[in-house]
């Protein structure tokens, strides 16, 4: 049995007639950039996130960068985030001209530890960028409290968290603005690059609408120096079809995660399964295990044709690109230790029960073998 890390074909097969129809409609109307399909998707996605506005853009990284710029963050400012994230979070901060400053993660949920924020705040700090890693919303209540106390903006990196909730509130509805990615493998994925900002601030909405489209509100009237960072009509048409199924697909991911949890949590197990916080609705963009014998387990799974991933093998503060920030090994012990322990196993809605059972069986045989030795 060969099991891919993510199988996008199964999902396409399940919605093919609707997708094909939506795409041919875009061709018929030749509405390739922005336009009707994008406007419609923006309304739908704002509603999905319990937010007032949504602005479709060309990637999640662009969405993050536009949020920062629209919040007035730039050179001389500092933005707090975590070293345990995909590089794009930090690149967006660098593009704005601000300096990324890292804070520790919570050892159980792997997301930003609110307790660690205080020490990192200086008079240059302007914003906090929490990352809803793997599909679990950060502990936002204390983060928002700290932000309000210090007059900081909060920009959520919700690129892995479409439809995730904490305390009954949806990802994207906590901060001043939030960024989503529609990279094909994300829980809501386009058939190419795409992204969106959601915000309930009219001011941020207006600024980002202009920034993504050459700084114009009226064609050829450029009120600011903007960019070309627009969402395609084709991608929006695909996203509208898929959005109708997203809650159901997230539910399937959760059911898959619960089955993994049940099968893998044997007595004496030395494998840590993901921890879902009590008030959280985790949507398992990634199902990441943690174990001391990561490399050996990865080898065994790969030998059995089971694909795996590592999210992420090198914490951002230790990446070569960021050596200039002056961090060193030892600065974030939990993140550094976990980078050697994390192992992501296949997770997508259409994963079959027998596939999950097969994967769990291999992992458990590995456990009993390594426990005997
Ligand atoms: C995917 C991702 C991004 C970037 O999104 P792109 O659409 O690939 O630009 C940013 N942050 C996180 C946490 C992501 O997972």
Question: Which key phrases capture this entry?
Answer:
single chain, 373 residues, 7-stranded mixed β-sheet, 10 helices, 39% helix, 14% strand, binds pyridoxal-5'-phosphate
Question: Total strand count, please?
Answer: 14
Beta-strand residue fraction: 5-15%
Q: Give the topology string: H per helix, E per strand.
A: HHEHEHEEHEEEEEHEEHEEHHEH
Number of distinct helices: 10
Name every ligand kind in the structure: pyridoxal-5'-phosphate
Mean pLDDT: 97
- Structural class by helix and strand composition: alpha/beta
Shape: globular
> Any idea what the radius of gyration is?
21 Å
Strand order, main sheet: write it out: 1-9-8-5-4-2-3
What does this protein structure show overall?
The chain is an alpha/beta fold. The chain is 39% helix and 14% strand. The chain has 10 helices and 14 strands. A 7-stranded mixed beta sheet has the order 1-9-8-5-4-2-3, with helices on both faces. The protein has a 3-stranded antiparallel beta sheet with strand order 7-6-12, with no helix packed on it. A two-stranded antiparallel ribbon has the order 10-11. It is globular. The two termini are 28 Å apart. The mean pLDDT is 97. Pyridoxal-5'-phosphate binds at residues 59-61, 85-86, 88-89, 131, 157, 159-160, 181, 183, 193, 195.
């Amino acid at each position: 049995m060969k099991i891919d890390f993510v199988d996008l074909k199964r999902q396409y097969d399940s919605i093919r007639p609707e997708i094909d129809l939506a795409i041919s409609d875009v061709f018929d109307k030749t509405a390739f950039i922005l336009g009707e399909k994008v406007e419609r998707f923006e309304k739908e996605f704002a509603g999905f996130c319990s937010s007032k506005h949504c602005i479709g853009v060309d990637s999640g990284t662009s969405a993050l960068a536009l949020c920062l710029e629209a919040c007035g963050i730039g050179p001389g400012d500092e933005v707090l985030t975590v070293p345990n994230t995909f590089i794009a979070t930090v690149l967006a901060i660098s593009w704005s001209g601000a300096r990324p400053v890292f804070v520790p993660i919570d050892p159980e949920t792997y997301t930003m530890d609110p307790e660690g924020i205080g020490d990192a705040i200086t008079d240059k700090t302007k914003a906090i960028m929490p990352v809803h890693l793997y599909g679990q919303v950060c502990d936002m209540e204390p983060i928002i409290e700290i932000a309000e106390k210090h007059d900081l903006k909060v920009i959520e990196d919700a690129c892995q968290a479409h439809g995730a909730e904490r305390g009954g509130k949806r990802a994207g509805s906590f901060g001043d603005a939030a960024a989503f990615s529609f990279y094909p493998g994300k829980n809501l994925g386009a058939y190419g690059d795409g992204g969106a900002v959601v915000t309930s601030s009219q001011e941020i909405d207006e600024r980002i609408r202009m920034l993504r489209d050459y700084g114009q509100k009226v064609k050829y009237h450029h009120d600011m120096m903007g960019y070309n960072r627009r969402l395609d009509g084709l991608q929006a048409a695909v996203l509208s079809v898929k959005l109708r199924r997203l809650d159901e697909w997230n539910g399937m991911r959760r059911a898959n995660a619960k089955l993994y949890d049940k099968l893998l949590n044997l007595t004496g197990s030395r494998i840590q399964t993901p921890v879902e916080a009590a008030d959280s609705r985790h949507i398992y963009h990634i199902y990441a295990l943690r174990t001391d014998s990561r490399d050996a387990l990865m080898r065994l799974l790969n030998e059995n044709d089971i694909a795996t991933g590592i999210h992420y093998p090198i914490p951002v503060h230790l990446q070569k690109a960021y050596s200039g920030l002056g961090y060193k090994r030892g600065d974030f012990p939990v993140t550094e230790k976990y980078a050697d322990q994390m192992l992501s196993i296949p997770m997508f809605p259409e994963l079959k029960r027998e596939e999950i059972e097969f994967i769990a069986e291999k992992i458990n045989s590995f456990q009993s073998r390594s426990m005997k030795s």
